[in-house]
Amino acid sequence: MLAVWRAVVFLLAGTVAAFVCLLALPVMLILCLVARPAALALLARTTRWERTRVAKYTGRPIPEAAPPDRLRDVWRDLIWFVGHALTGTVVGIFGVALPLAAVNAVLVPAYWWLAPADDPVSSPYPVTSWTGAAFMPLLGLGYAILSLWATPWLARTQAGLARWLLSPPPGARLAERVAELTASRAAALEAHGAELRRIERDLHDDTQNRIVAVAMHLGIVERALRRDPATALPLVLKAQDAASDALAGLRGVVRSIYPPVLTERGLDGAVAGLIARCAVPTTLTVTTLGRAPAAVESAAYFVVAEALTNVAKHSGANRCEVRLTGADPLVIEVWDDGQGGADETGGTGLLGIQRRVAAFDGHATIDSPDGGPTVLKVELPNGS
């Protein structure tokens, strides 16, 4: 009975929608001829409502294609609109009428005698006696048995037809996915190139200079040993300090490629270390966080590191929160109570986050109205 009731509700909503579509059909035809953008907008709103209705009934969402700019791109939606306008009302009324007829037939013996003699109850034959009324519950049982099969079947058929027509064609979905993967590949290449340039810059501007300093100190030590070995010890110590500095710089570059703390303490421990060094008081909230692939954890670590750097440098915030939710996707949220107004086009930090996330086919959004607060939300697929 629950299936019948859900089907009745679904068909009732479809009947109302079909009646509205029927009234709007002449308007739609006129708009298709004289104002196509308005026709596309009306069609998109109607089909979006139908997708939602069918998804609630079936429990499976209907994918929506990218917004079209031509009527030829939505011919399947137009077929559904016209077909639903012309047939949806009839189908809905028929599907709802069967269970109502069953209820009415069962109740006929209770009220048939109240009807005037010249206008008896007719369902489906005139009931003019208790004998005729006695057979109505049997007829109601037949209606009930028929509605147990027909009403859900009509609802499933209507939902299936809508799903078939309103789903993007397989080729269109494939083309859309190819475009997404192409953009993701371009972002990955761009992020990879930026990472290589950063590593090269760090090695050239920092580590290389420190190693050159070590070589210079060793040259000075060599000359001191030839002239006066007694004065060489302080120079050897300076060369040793320079070598230690060069080693520390090299270790910093290695950590920037893949921080060892991720292996030792996991993503939550590594982020806790970042928070401990942040100039702005920051709290960490972790929800069901497990281990993700190393590349994903590394990307998440650098996203948080860059976000906290931006908060400390630009936000003027007094408080910050980092939230990690371990699911698929891995969700990272960085909130601060700063002055807001953050714009990913205004600097390299947020743009770098966008590129790093896009390389994993993820999404990054920032909500930063003037006056704050600022919320950076990142979703990274982790393959779990």
TrEMBL record:
The keyword Chloroplast does not apply. Its EC number is 2.7.13.3. The keyword Transmembrane applies. GO terms for molecular function: ATP binding; phosphorelay sensor kinase activity; protein dimerization activity. GO terms for cellular component: membrane. The chain crosses the membrane at residues 79-112, 132-155. Residues 295-384 form the Histidine kinase/HSP90-like ATPase domain. It catalyses: ATP + protein L-histidine = ADP + protein N-phospho-L-histidine. InterPro entries: HATPase_C_sf, HATPase_dom, Put_sensor_dom, Sensor_HK_TwoCompSys, Sig_transdc_His_kin_sub3_dim/P. Keywords: ATP-binding, Kinase, Membrane, Nucleotide-binding, Phosphoprotein, Transferase, Transmembrane, Transmembrane helix, Two-component regulatory system. SUPFAM superfamilies: ATPase domain of HSP90 chaperone/DNA topoisomerase II/histidine kinase. This is histidine kinase. It comes from Actinophytocola oryzae. The lineage of its organism: Bacteria, Bacillati, Actinomycetota, Actinomycetes, Pseudonocardiales.
